[in-house]
Amino acid sequence: MNITRENIDELNAVVKVDIAKEDYSGKVEKILKDYRKNANIPGFRKGHVPMGMVKKQYGQAVLVDEVNKLLQDSLNKYLTEEKLDVLGNPIPKEQENFDWNKEEYTFEFELGLAPDFDVKLELEKPVTHYNIVADEKMVNSQIESMRKQYGKITSKDEAEEGDIVAGTFKNEEEGIEKNTSVELEKIKGKRNLNKFVGAKIGDVITLKTKSLFEDDHDLVQHLDVEHDKAHDLDIEVEFTVNEISHRELAELNQELFDKLFGEGKVTSEDELKEKIKEDAAKQFKQQSDQQLMNDVTKQLIEQTKFELPKEFLQKWIQTVGEKPMTEDEAKEEYEKSEEGLRYQLIEGKIVNENKLTVEFEDLKAFAKEKIKEQMAQFGQMNPEDKELDDIAARILSNQDEVKRMSEQLMNEKLLGFYKEKMSFEEKEVTYDEFVKEIYE
Fold first, then answer.
1. How many angstroms separate the Cα of 100 from the Cα of each of 110, 179, 356?
2. Which processes are annotated in GO (biological process) (predicted)?
3. CA proximity to 250, closest of 149, 343, 157
4. pLDDT tens, 370-397?
5. Rounded CA gap, 223 and 37, in Å?
6. Residue 41, pLDDT above cutoff 90
7. Which of 49, 100, 150, 212 has its CA at a distance of 20 to 30 angstroms from the CA of residue 36?
8. CA dihedral 217, 173, 179, 193 (to 10 degrees)
9. Quick one: CATH architecture of 152-248?
């Protein structure tokens, strides 16, 4: 066997594999002899079928199978030994009039080679690291929500502002008939609200869906309409009042604090506010870190310039899916995935050059920490280490979970590395300011 490579340019190469008869004949003969021992062909005793008949019936199929196995093994070994960093997989070049009856074969494969480039960790454009804090408005809103959750609900005969009105929205033409409960504080505009105020059980209220709620997406829940349709929905609906209730807010006392956080963990309104801010900070940190990762990723892609074997990759994309793609479909798919591929190469280079690794002990500790967080949500605050070890062992026996958690952990290591090596503009914002700045 002989394998040679011709470099077309820095990003493309062709590998040629020559296979001679002696490379495969011994294996083919052995398999055919085994076939002969076990073949059941009418007119012949088992193990006494003529070899010529076995070769005629099975010879070419065995030959093709063994040559292909030899080809793939040899090609993979060659790529490893030559330390070729290839993108995608080798693409076999088509050969017209290929003849399996010959004794020697030649195969050619196109290769797409990974580019050589450097990654600068100094960011050319400023990136903001947000410190998101819970402001007084958010804290008070959270406290009100907690008081509502544990408050007392009483039935009423007539609706007033702040009540909850249960009933049925109906519009025969649009096929709407939905039982729901409407919190009147979510109704938009005095005109709409006044239609509910003073209503009694059995009353039918006619309403326009346009600007009925402070948030148009509430129509999805209350009318059972599609999400995309809710924003522009402008129809008339009837609402039949079935029940009226009022939720009295729970008192801010020790009984409520114990229900929320456990006995004696919070003992005053000031401590409650600090606990809310502390819990919010943990959630906000995840969002802040994710945004930082997104912005660093975008910046690294923009400032790290290199070429890719574009034509090869588009051709490869045509072949890897369940269904073959057209050239135009492959081009479109490549354009959608190019940024992801670029960052994958950049990230790989950063990981390798800085020896960022995920060891099994790291993964085990990471898994145990995630398990503790989940158990805490169900009130199990101090699980024993053996219990954590047993659960982690079960999780890490699943290869899909290992892959998922390894990616998560590597993402955290990369983020820590970026925070250590890069400079960011620190900015303290409320959650509303963060949402406005990022998403609007």
1. 22, 71, 48
2. 'de novo' cotranslational protein folding; protein transport; protein unfolding
3. 149
4. 898 888 777 676 788 888 999 999 999 9
5. 73
6. no
7. 100
8. 60
9. Roll (3.10)
